[in-house]
Amino acid sequence: MTAAVKFTRKTLPQKEGLGEKLAKKRISLGLDPKDIEKAIRVRAKHIEAIENGRYDSLPPDVYVRGFVRNYANFLKLDPDKVMKLYERERGLIENVRKAKAGAPIVKPLATPKIVITPKTITVGAIVFAALSIFLYIGWQVALLTSPPKLTVTNPKDNVNIAGNSVNVEGTTDTGASLFINDVEIGVDQDGSFKEKISLQNGVNIIKVRAQNKMGKYTEIRDTVVATFASEVASSTAAGIEVKLTIGPRSASVQVEVDDKNVTDKPIVMLAGVTQTYKGTDKIKITTNDGGSVDATINGQDIGVLGKANEAVNREFTKGMTITK
Of 60, 58, 49, 61, which Cα lies nearest the Cα of 22? Predict the structure, then answer.
């Protein structure tokens, strides 16, 4: 009689996969996929797909490689080891997919024929449309990853001006945000802009910055020398006088005297500018930065109108008791 053969079952240790490694490290740091999305700008759904090995739901491999490397760096894992693990797992999945698909059927070569039919026209139109969309997306990506174009046509650099204001004019890319001395101004739909700004007596540095949604920016600096006669203080017994001094930052300011706007829209006043307004009954001041607008009412300095970067709307009337 043949002796019975005994078999011993042995469980082989399972190596830790890419997704398990990343998820375990993330959880140990007390983070969830939404936290990772905010930190490295990769959508939470892509983070979850990587951790669960759902590569078929991810973008093309060239993008996923960047996702994985950034994720590894953020978790302070060795990015080279993580990438090798990714490549091994991705390769295994691709091999399985190809095996399921089966070997390709080789057909005998036939003499090529070009036959124009409604079907070929339709296919050609679809291909052309897809190519157009691809090129458009590429163009949009190029716009976001490169600084916006910026041209300032007025004023010219190192110009002398007789007066206390100047129009800043030029063009930039559509959709870009525009700032003059860190004060945001509006841009027309075609990318053109024109903004009147107040100057201080002497040298003024005008900084124009165009910035896209990715934070890429282009900045142009022009020097303008302004010359004008300073206003002489006069009696305010018959009305009200408000003197504004701008600083430490530039500010957007709208002034209304006796229910009439001095300008048709808020103007940018550069740091160091001093402007005086006189009215019969009342003067209203509106600004985007109360901490940079110091006011003197009928010779009484009341200090700044508000806190730094605080939107403020103050009205001063003839005969009122002035408080800070």
Answer: 49
